[in-house]
């Protein structure tokens, strides 16, 4: 993979203040009170249905919380104009549904829309940024292909490339390694860590404890009953807590300076 990543456009983080997400029919969980600071990579772990996607959509302003607030650079999400918000906050969604036929390059260029006036065409610079983002995700050569013809992993990388072209200060990513082979999982996690090192705040939902252990500096554990705990990765990725989280016995070890967890057979 090659290409030049854009500069982070700003360095403001995200704050969750006494945030209770709204999961229909479920009692209030623990209020979330934490800050995702520039330079940090947060991983959210939890079993199916725990509320990870609901949380991510709440942080993106796509659904209201039951109570509490989400602040971006000190202002509530509702106080931001849509375009200004779109320049600061990017979302890699879990699934994308094709609205209308579009090529790979046209899709990556959507990431530049927050920077265009209503009737403006993309500039040569926008094109270069979109092409650079595609190259970074190993999609150069596929620019004229229809998105509907891409494999699952190629589509996933296109979603990440589109947000890379958007160049937000805050990245929200819902299982960004979905459908990816091991090399591309590594490349995408490396890219997110690189964005954080460039001053972005990164918040992602993951199912892979070992990817979280390797690349996240902070972890939020979301339990199905709404309880939650969070903190630095070393303190959160503890066998007993993870066994309770997933209802699965684990065996832990240390490899290459990182904790690794594998399911116990008995
Ligand atoms: N509109 C809705 N009406 C009723 N229940 C809903 C609605 N949207 C989500 N839920 C429920 O809320 C819970 C949390 O869903 P969410 O998608 O946030 O979980 P998740 O942790 O991301 O799960 P997964 O790991 O399977 O992706 C689930 O039990 C889901 O069925």
TrEMBL record:
Keywords: ATP-binding, Nucleotide-binding
Highest taxon in the source lineage: Bacteria
Domain annotation ABC transporter: ranges: 14-249
InterPro entries per UniProt: AAA+_ATPase (IPR003593), ABC_transporter-like_ATP-bd (IPR003439), ABC_transporter-like_CS (IPR017871), P-loop_NTPase (IPR027417)
Protein name stated in the entry: ABC transporter
One of the Pfam families matching this protein, by short name: ABC_tran
PANTHER family in alphabetical order: ABC TRANSPORTER ATP-BINDING PROTEIN, HEMIN IMPORT ATP-BINDING PROTEIN HMUV
Cited Gene3D superfamilies: P-loop containing nucleotide triphosphate hydrolases
């Amino acid at each position: 993979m090659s290409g030049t990543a854009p500069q982070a456009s700003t360095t403001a983080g995200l704050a969750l203040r006494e945030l209770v997400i709204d999961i229909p029919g479920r009692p209030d969980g623990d209020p979330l009170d934490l800050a995702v600071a520039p330079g940090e990579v947060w991983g959210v772990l939890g079993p199916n249905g725990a509320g990870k996607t609901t949380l991510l959509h709440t942080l993106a302003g796509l659904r209201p919380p039951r109570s509490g607030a989400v602040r971006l650079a000190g202002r509530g999400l509702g106080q931001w104009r849509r375009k200004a918000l779109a320049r600061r906050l990017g979302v890699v969604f879990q699934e994308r549904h094709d609205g209308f036929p579009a090529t790979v390059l046209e899709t990556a260029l959507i990431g530049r829309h927050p920077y265009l006036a209503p009737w403006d065409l993309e500039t040569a610079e926008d094109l270069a940024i979109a092409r650079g983002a595609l190259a970074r995700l190993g999609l150069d050569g596929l620019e004229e292909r229809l998105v509907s013809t891409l494999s699952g992993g190629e589509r996933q990388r296109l979603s990440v490339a589109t947000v890379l072209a958007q160049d937000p200060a805050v990245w929200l990513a819902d299982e960004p390694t979905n459908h990816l082979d091991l090399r591309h999982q590594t490349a995408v996690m490396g890219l997110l860590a690189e964005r954080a090192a460039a001053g972005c705040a990164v918040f992602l939902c993951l199912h892979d404890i070992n990817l979280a252990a390797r690349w996240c500096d902070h972890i939020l554990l979301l339990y199905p009953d709404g309880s939650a705990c969070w903190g630095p990765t070393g303190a959160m990725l503890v066998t007993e807590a993870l066994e309770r989280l997933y209802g699965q016995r684990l065996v832990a070890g240390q490899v290459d300076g990182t904790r690794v967890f594998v399911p116990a057979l008995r």
